[in-house]
Write a structure and sequence with these properties.
- The protein is mainly α.
- The chain has a single domain (about 5-100), classed as Arc Repressor Mutant, subunit A.
- The protein contains five helices and no strands.
- It has helices at about 15-25, 30-35, 40-50, 50-75, 80-100.
- It is elongated and about 45 Å long.
């Protein structure tokens, strides 16, 4: 897919769209796609802005909480065990990502 790398063509609301997608539990790549920018672009912006890096980390934590709630609800549904295993995998991936973001990350 083609993503905007030209700063003049980047939607000014890309950060909001990106962070909202992370809060929903999506991956960085998918969140960047939703925002209309490349993964490289968002990582570059995170390196340049401590504020954005903090917002990113908070959005990842929010997304983790959302995934945990989904896993809890699905685990309670005895007919949906496969989905519970998939969500467990996604949560482990997200926990790993959070643990590498910052040494001060609180993991719930």
């Amino acid at each position: 897919m083609n993503y905007n790398t030209d700063m003049s063509k980047v939607n000014p609301n890309w950060k909001t769209a990106f962070l909202n997608a992370l809060r929903e539990g999506h991956t960085v790549g998918f969140a960047a796609q939703v925002a209309g920018v490349s993964r490289r672009y968002v990582y570059r912006q995170r390196e340049r802005s401590r504020q954005f890096a903090r917002e990113w980390e908070e959005a990842l934590q929010d997304g983790l909480e959302r995934l945990l709630e989904m896993a809890r609800a699905r685990a309670a549904d005895k007919t949906d065990k496969a989905s519970a295993y998939l969500l467990t995998f996604l949560i482990r991936v997200r926990l790993s990502a959070l643990s590498h973001c910052d040494d001060n990350v609180d993991i719930v």
